[in-house]
Amino acid sequence: MNSRRSRAALFDGIEEGGVRAYSSSHEIDESSNDRAMEGLQDRVNFLKRLTGDIHEEVQNHNQMLNRMGNDMDSSRGILSGTVDRFKTVFETKSGRRMATLVASFLALFLLIYYMTR
Hints:
Structural class: mainly alpha
Helix content: over 70%
Strand content: under 5%
Radius of gyration: 34 Å
Number of helices: 3
């Protein structure tokens, strides 16, 4: 909320075509030019800090996305290895029997577990 106010304040006093249009160049004195320059310098510094913060945030997000991509690649490798092992187990008739037996014991165990709870 505070940054919204400061962003809104950043552009206060700026009209189309530049900083406050005056009717005559004689009305602008040196002190008002200095104040306008200071105001512009403050706004430039604010924008510079803001863009630096945005750049840092983008870099952090890119690093996080790279880590997530690497993690996904490694888990994909592990999962494909597991699937290959299951394929070799199910290719043989005895492997299918063993898998059926393990699944039956697991189902029986879960049934007894939930019945005793």
